[in-house]
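Technical note accompanying the year-one report. For the benefit of new consortium partners, we illustrate the data format agreed upon in the data management plan: each record pairs a sequence with a structure-token string. No post-processing was applied to the example shown here.
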Amino acid sequence: MTARADDLHSSSKGSWRRRLLAARAEQDPQVRARSAAALTRAAVALAAQTGGPVCAYVAVGTEPWSAAGLDALHAAGHEVLLPVVPTRPAPLDWARYDGPDSLAPARFGLLEPTGPRLGAEAVSRARLVLVPGLAVDRSGTRLGRGAGHYDRTLPLVTAGTPLVMVLDDDELVDELPAEAHDHPVGAVLLPRQGHVVLGKNA
């Protein structure tokens, strides 16, 4: 791919990100809360099928997920692992979630677990990986925030482990711009539709 084509893809992704973030910011908080509750139910139901450990994440801002989802997975008996963002370009580190008191403010406005770091390879133990982002298309191409942390991390997941994005209903779209380094996912959790399989398995 030429440098010019890369620039076009980057610009296109930037446009998508701006539109999606604006739409999230405009969403009614009560609607967002209902969606988060539905996503929690869907995540717990899916984890009951896969078992744990479950790699998840702490939602921030207007992301369609909530800390209640982490507590529900934990209460259901699953080991929940949360990401720790490295200080250099590298796969995510991981640590266990042991309740809200086990979280502390971190860079980029995130909350991260304070327990012992388990290393990037901890994701290979997961039976289910819940992935944040802004959108996904029906082929499994995902759109993240652009930092590349999950593109470096997802190749470490054991083959066959479900990679599932957690999104709002209108963030499943027909097609997104893709680049060679983008790592696809196999499914999405949506508030109304629940667990939706993507790509060749759909």
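Partners are asked to follow this layout when depositing records. The chain has four helices and twelve strands.
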